[in-house]
Amino acid sequence: SNARDYLRKLVDEKKIEYKNNLYLKRFINKNGLIELEFKNQENSKILTKKLFIGAGSIQTPRIVINSLNKRKDLPLKESQAFYIPCIYLGKNSNNDLNHHTLTQAHVYFKENIKYSIGKVHYEIKYDQKITDLSLKKQFGPLYKLIPNFFKKRIFVITGFINSNYSTFSAKIRKEDLKIDIFENKNNKKKIKFEVLNQLKILEKKYNFISIKSFLKLGNFGRGFHLGSSIPMLSEKKIKLSKDDDLYTKKNGEIANYRNIFIIDGTNFTNIPAGSSGLTIMANALRIAVENSND
Q1: Residue 148: per-residue pLDDT
Q2: End-to-end CA distance of the chain
């Protein structure tokens, strides 16, 4: 991949020192430096002036909990996913499979119909191979009776809800770092109502029908869009925070922990509907540039 090639180039040019197979357990402040302890190599310790943590939205808060001597639980939010199969009704059903990407189209529905659940993100996905596998699993031997012209018109909509309105929330326990999941059934009803009624509008606009009885809201973690355990607060909100609140400042630095920065989705205030990968990368680059000069 391009990222791997770029990393290899930096290593070859000796612009960075790369150490693999080290799994960070915790960091410790020692005499103005930061000492790193690892899970798999207890005798290997590294001292550094600054630490930028981007271990992912589950491992990053676990590292922080360990480093704070298991002082407090940390929240974990998710942008909930949902899935629904659809059938295209337009005249042209030809597909150029050689130029397919993961998602063929994106639609943001900005206005809610009845309930306030924020912007809803719809991704249009067409993949004949996945469609065939799904139909075989659903219908068994009867799959062979489905005409090819009909199968070519089937596609799937994958959608996402902002984490503030998702059915599930969670916390990472300080005692054992396991995840407790909490369900808000009232939010579940609101999401279903909004999605099904928004789909009616999209169906008329884009000439398809959705098979509403097959709408499925994803379980916690199924959408892989997680984070917000140590949110980045504005100066105004920092003034209103409590002494034991854990947050990052605008520059990505963890409050009360000098030179330790969060550079993944852990520092988001909420997880937006839709893809956040480019936003995470842009924010990580900004934090690195702003804090790498001294």
Answers
A1: 85
A2: 32
| Rounded mean pLDDT, 154-175 | 95
Nearest to 34 by CA among 26, 22, 42: 26
With a threshold of 0.90, does the pTM exceed it?
no
Query: What whole-number distance in Å separates Cα of residue 118 and Cα of residue 121?
Result: 10
Rounded to 5 degrees, what angle do the CA atoms 165, 168, 172 make? 120
H helices within 68-218, ranges in order? 128-139, 148-151, 185-206
The answer, yes or no, to whether residue 61 has pLDDT greater than 80, is yes
R_g (Cα) of the chain, nearest Å? 23
Over the chain, what is the mean pLDDT? 90
pLDDT, tens digit, for every residue of 48-58?
999 999 999 99
More confident residue, 39 or 194: 194
- Order of strands across the sheet with 33-38? 24-30, 33-38, 46-48
DSSP tag of 186: H
Residue 10: φ, ψ to 5°: -65, -40
Q: Which of 252, 83, 75, 238 is nearest to 170 (CA)?
A: 75
Q: Which residue has the tokens 């960075």?
A: 16
Helix, strand, or coil (residue 208) = strand
| Rounded-to-integer distance, Cα 195 and Cα 216, Å | 11
Residue 42: predicted pLDDT: 75
Cα separation, 134 vs 129, whole angstroms:
9
The angle formed by the CA atoms of residues 66, 69 and 75, to the nearest 5 degrees, is: 60
